[in-house]
Specification:
The protein is an all-alpha fold. The protein has a single domain, classed as Growth Hormone, Chain: A (Up-down Bundle), CATH 1.20.1250.20. About 75% of the residues lie in helices and about 0% in strands. It contains 19 helices and no strands. α5 packs antiparallel against α8. The longest helix is centred in the middle third of the chain and has 30 residues.
Length: about 425
């Protein structure tokens, strides 16, 4: 725990981390609220699949823009602006309902806007971490970021499952809107400006006209990433695993509505179980780094996590299905922590904004494929076929990471980055 305490001694990191935790908590409730608004109306699973695609597909477009913005402007300003904008968008549904005239398309617009802006905090927070903590604190800080996500995501869905039944889905969206305002406030009190980093230079280099300003080097190209076999392999593997998770995004509310006894509470239980697993996995990953190959360790945990999708076939046994969701979260968190630290050490600082936005865009865009793929299968009640596809898509790419000569690839890619 000393490593976590040392990272949290950095006041600005602690403030941003707390704000991100609150915002993620609100976000995890929003998906439950949006799905229940849509699934309670006409269209059922078909409209639910469309909602999931709206929620995930725009990530590809928004992520490309987010990287450029984060490398050009102060990350603190970008995070504040994003939070205020999303607070306004999410609150549009409860406001429209209060006025008695919510159009049927509004939940899909809110989901699409959320997806479009999703990469701003997902890339902005980790891109800011190297500017807020020392290199020795990177693993602990990255684990804390995943810990933040795990804690918030564990509490949020469970709260939403209860709150939707008692105060309505629209009021849950109001809570999420307030959580964005909290993140904006905590980002505003971060004292250290998070300006774009210089190539091989400090986070806050000289401004134009100051001594040393003319010594700036040109920013390195993103081509460095394509030449790094480790970054390419782990990114492709994560993209495949996220296709399986995109299928799960639709399958979970479908199970809750059709095969599990407790309805929205069951959906909250499943999503919270996965988030609790992520929380435990993030803590373990921050305390125990792989002794040898990070790449092989990532492949092993991904392969085992993919097998956990088989527990979907245990429905309507709610506890067994929840245990499978827990296992998926438990094993996916170390994948994220170890890969993120690997990228931070291998990618030049001047590329952090564009690199994290670009890589996370690729990884976060693929759930839409899974959501679109699984929807017709669930409409036809073909859960077994959907489960087999999830296992195959999630596990096959992991075999490359397990059996590839990771050490040789690592040495080769380091040389290419250095050049």
């Amino acid at each position: 725990m000393r490593r976590y305490k040392h990272a949290l001694k950095t006041t600005d990191f602690r403030r941003l981390w707390l704000g991100a935790t609150v915002s993620t908590w609100g976000d995890s409730m929003t998906w439950i609220a949006l799905t229940w608004i849509v699934i309670s109306g006409p269209g059922g699973a078909g409209r639910l699949g469309i909602l999931a695609v709206c929620y995930t597909a725009p990530v590809a477009l928004g992520g490309l823009a987010a990287g450029v913005v984060l490398d050009r402007f102060d990350k603190r300003t970008v995070l504040i602006t994003d939070s205020l904008l999303r607070a306004a968008v999410v609150s549009s549904i409860p406001i429209a309902l209060a006025l008695g005239a919510m159009p049927s398309w509004l939940p899909f617009v809110v989901a699409g806007t959320h997806g479009l802006l999703k990469m701003v905090p997902l890339a902005g927070f980790p891109a800011a971490i190297p500017q807020l903590v020392t290199d020795d604190d990177l693993d602990a800080a990255n684990a804390l970021e995943n810990l933040s996500y795990g804690v918030a995501s564990a509490i949020g869905p469970a709260c939403a499952g209860v709150l939707v039944a008692h105060i309505g889905a629209a009021n849950v969206l109001l809570i999420d809107s307030a959580s964005f305002l909290v993140f904006a406030a905590t980002a505003a009190v971060v004292r250290r400006p998070m300006r774009p980093r210089l190539a091989n230079g400090p986070a806050d280099g000289p401004a134009a006209g100051e001594p040393g300003a003319g010594a700036r080097r040109r920013k390195p190209s993103l081509r460095l990433l394509y030449r790094d076999r480790i970054i390419v392999a782990t990114t492709v593997s994560f993209m495949a695993f996220n296709i399986a998770e995109g299928m799960l995004l639709v399958t979970a509310p479908w199970l809750a509505d059709n095969h599990l006894p407790d309805g929205p509470a069951a959906l909250g239980l499943l999503m919270s179980a996965m988030a609790v697993g992520e929380l435990v996995g993030a803590v373990a990953a921050g305390l125990c780094a792989p002794r040898r190959s990070h790449v092989r360790a990532i492949g092993i945990v991904q392969g085992v996590a993919a097998l956990a999708f088989l527990t979907l076939l245990a429905s309507p046994r709610q506890v067994l299905v929840a245990a499978g969701f827990f296992a998926i979260g438990l094993l996916s968190a170390p994948m994220t922590v170890w890969a993120q630290s690997l990228r931070m050490r291998r990618i030049p600082p001047a590329l952090h904004g564009r690199a994290f936005a670009g890589l996370r865009t690729l990884m976060q865009a693929t759930p839409a494929i899974g959501s679109a793929l699984v929807t017709p299968l669930l409409v036809g009640d073909r859960l077994a076929i959907a489960t087999v596809i999830m296992v195959a898509v999630g596990s096959i790419p992991a075999l490359y990471l397990i059996f590839t000569r990771a050490d040789a690839a690592q040495a080769e890619s380091r040389t290419s980055v250095a050049h």
